[in-house]
Amino acid sequence: MPDKGEALDNGRFSHGGTLFALAAEMGIEPESLLDFSASINPLGPAPGVRPAVAAAFDRVVHYPEVGSPGLCRALAAYHALGEERIAVANGSTELIHLLPRLTGRSAGRALLLAPTFSEYAHALELAGWRIDYLCLSPEGGFALDLARVATELARGYDLLFFCNPGNPTGRLYKVEEVEALYALCRQSGCFFVLDEAFIDFSEEGSAKHRLPEGEDDWLILRSMTKFFGFPGLRLGYVLGSSRLMARLQQLLPPWNVGVLAQAAGLAALADPEHCCRTREFVNAERKRLGARLGALPGLTVFPGAANYLLIQITSSMTAAALQEKLLAGRILIRDCSNFTGLDGRFFRVAVRTGEENERLLGALERAMEPEEGGRNV
């Protein structure tokens, strides 16, 4: 099933967070748009990140350390893993684009559990891979059907991508389900890629200590831009076996992570209190926002475990039409109609501050009011 062009669409809504391009198109300042399309920590970076980045500025006259060893050590302590099992990159998207080369195949076959992040397909298409989708059902709450996965894997795949919590669904799958999914991949000789970009917003659920340490047939993608709140600096990393990380380091550019991003990462990891505040705030605000959204007529909210919520419109309005209505009030949501497995009535909103969420709720309430003649269009 094709991806409806999301992966290769260069339009203004092909991803969330297209704030600058959209503001330029509208002829307004980016700061005047309230962006609910990108799911970033609403509390922003930890307080120590800004002074750490400022203090590191004098180092921009030097090349950064190859491999980010200091940051690898800090991440190893954060995850209670050996530093040799971690590789740092210029955002997890850089790693996604390296994965086809890491497998050693010039052209393979990949299975994506959809709906999911479009960059997987983009990277695979650029590498000449064949892509198939197994769509999880909205009616079933995007539950993971392991029997269906086993049947599909029997057709022969080289790589499987799975996102937990799901993006854009927000569903958090039990670690036992992830283990079972990996076991199916291993049985069929399929490399398992687990994307945990939003797992830090949950207090449990990571499979980092549950997948076998010595095996080279899996890896876990992680992001430092969402939870730690600095997507503009680009910082991500991957967890896996020491042998696999050594192979990956050979593929990564030598100076792929700048000194400012490394300094930001170190400062963020050094503030566990900010991490706790973030989880507490986001979890409470997500529940409040979800309940308020669910009370609006014409909307069905899917339970989530990250800092965003997936919503289905049950009236005649489309997500694209709703997006345009909200843009008139300078509020941007993520139209999810170009995700494989979702239709034109799904959209996603980030969890932001209480005041900003109230502004969204008011705008949605007005936008969902029936047009003259009794129909939303």
Describe it.
The chain is an alpha/beta fold. It has two domains: 121 residues, Aspartate Aminotransferase, domain 1; 223 residues, Aspartate Aminotransferase, domain 2, CATH 3.40.640. 36% of the residues lie in helices and 15% in strands. The protein has twelve helices and 13 strands. The strands form three sheets. The protein has a seven-stranded mixed beta sheet, sandwiched between helices. Strands 9-10-13-12 form a four-stranded antiparallel beta sheet. The N terminus is likely disordered.
Which term fits the overall shape? globular
Total tally of structural domains: 2
Structural class: alpha/beta
What's the CATH first level of the largest domain? Alpha Beta
Quick check: average pLDDT? 92
Q: Termini distance?
A: 28 Å
> Looking at this structure, what is the CATH superfamily of the largest domain?
Type I PLP-dependent aspartate aminotransferase-like (Major domain)
Number of helices, where a helix is a run of at least 4 consecutive DSSP H or I residues: 12
Strand arrangement across the biggest beta sheet: 2-8-7-6-5-3-4
How many E-type strands? 13
Query: What is the element string, with H for helices and E for strands?
Result: HEHHEHEHEHEHEEEHHHEEHEEEH
